[in-house]
Amino acid sequence: MSKRNLVLFIASSLDGYIATKDESLEWLFQVEGEGDNGFSEFYDTVDTILMGKRTYDWVMNQDLEEFPYKNKECYVFTRAAAENTEDVKFVNGDVTHFVNKLKSQGGKNIWLVGGGELLQAFIQEKLVDELIITVAPTILGKGIPLFREGDSQLNLSLKRIRNFNQFVELHYEVKK
Length: 176
Ligand SMILES: NC(=O)c1ccc[n+]([C@@H]2O[C@H](COP(=O)([O-])OP(=O)(O)OC[C@H]3O[C@@H](n4cnc5c(N)ncnc54)[C@H](OP(=O)(O)O)[C@@H]3O)[C@@H](O)[C@H]2O)c1
Description:
binds NADP nicotinamide-adenine-dinucleotide phosphate
């Protein structure tokens, strides 16, 4: 059985922000990309999705007809009590234990959607195997940072670079 990887797939401004302070992604949607910028190709490689509670709230505020990740196992990390819905299960507790359990179960890759706060916990615990960062040609100046300060250094190996018109996709593997 091939190894199941945990992959961060996220879009960022050139200066490393994933949203404005007021959680807008308008700057991202304005960029001229190409097709779906590799999204469906990536989406097919995962069967499980992880996100932080603020990212989940952002998705739920989008007025979508239905939850966008219906056909995958979706987990939302929160420290508060929350009731599972038909689309997501809430997870509260040790991220390392949870991810190791998922990895031991086998399956396709696991998508870490974000945001930056949850990512920081995953970096700290060295749980991320690959990072695919789609860089927008935008300098936001301020916003919600992709990477937070921490004390865990990761060394990466570049696997691929490609562009979707104005977007640059950087694909790294974490060196173990
Ligand atoms: N550009 C992109 O591709 C992209 C992708 C994803 C998200 N975003 C944007 O990023 C923003 C949200 O990012 P964010 O960094 O502010 O928040 P986040 O990481 O999405 O969520 C933070 C929340 O997750 C929970 N959490 C974090 N670490 C945890 C841990 N170790 N254990 C258990 N629960 C944990 C906490 O929820 P509780 O407070 O409930 O305890 C925390 O308040 C949104 O605006 C979203 O739109 C952008």
